[in-house]
Amino acid sequence: MxxxxxxxxxxxSWVEEYCLRAKWPQCIRYQMEENGExxxxxMLPDGSIREDLG
Length: 54
What we know:
By secondary structure, the chain is mostly helical. The protein has helices at 2-6, 12-19, 28-34. The protein is built from three helices and no strands.
């Protein structure tokens, strides 16, 4: 997500809302990483997939 944000492909609000605030435990990507589960790079914190980020 960081690379997509830096390239201007992903709105900074995703990072600000899920990564920098207290919502990170609700982040699906975070939960999957903690469980050792694969998630695609273009998965957003809410679990939705953005094909334009692939």
